[in-house]
Amino acid sequence: MSINNLGSLFNQGFPEFQENRPLWWLQPTDTVDYLDAMMDEFKIRHVPIIEPIDPKSDEPRGELKTIISKTDLVKILTPPNELYPPEFPLTPQQKLQLRKFNQEISAKCLNEIEDFAKLMTIPVKTLSLRNSRVGDVFEALMNPVRPEGENFTRRYRTLCVYGDNKLIVGTISYTDVLRKINDPTSHTQFLRATIGQNSLFKKREDLTVLTEDDNLLRARRILKENSFTHIPITTADGRFVTGIVDDVIVNTFLHDITLTQYSKLPLKYIMLPVNERNSVSPGTVTSKVIETFVPDNSKDRPTALVVCTKDSDSGKFTFDGIISYTDIFRGFLMFINPGSPTPENPK
Questions:
Q1: Architecture of domain 193-336 in CATH?
Q2: 211 phi/psi in degrees, rounded to 5
């Protein structure tokens, strides 16, 4: 069934949600090591933390305390060994500190980690299988929330869905919605148009951009002060785009133990270089862009893509802008309801 009717019930817009698929979840008393292993083994980036009514039951029936994301996890862990730039080697003392820290943090329960315990006090966005509407899904996935009394925003890229009697029956993510949008039988005109024709991406002049020689500390400050999660990286003259950094990679390196070592690390050493998996051109049709957002390998699923054009003389990429999954959502909502306000663009 199409998701064109934002007022239709959730289970009407997403009937495939009823299909049996595993829900990977943990209790607050499970360990950090278990969380890390679950994300790695099942290639997932979000894990619901549930306080079950019956602690001995495997059924996810109870209170949803929070959803821990990969970004949340890397904030408390140290970078994997293979990520350390050889140009900036750690001292023997730092290596010893990291090894000891990793052993101690991995054995702790989730509710013993200060950052996680704080998340468990913040109300979580959820959906109801029986009562939520299709429009609620878009609103919840598009709009970041600022918890009362806090100086940070939190964006939910995965939502838990409640059934009856406090039973969490599954999750729905932005990739699920993108797949529904990418239905050529219902949205042909939107999908066949390019992202330039659909005016989907944010233009270069409206973006915050850093160069390869800017450092991690500056990137972290910018991300902390804004609600966006990606920063394009250009050559020193700003002419060509060479990579992108996001909140995950920045938080991975700026751990307390490695802060002194890496705070001034140039971004060129840790950025993700522009390649076919994280970039598109303004002339790419929308359906192909969506396919780039949802590749088969879940570990490579980006939440934003660099929009660039290959320079025929140099072979480098001129920078046009950036597109996120929320830009696709916004454009789709404008397509099905021309002239109506979208969740991110109220009149």
A1: Roll (3.10)
A2: -105, 170
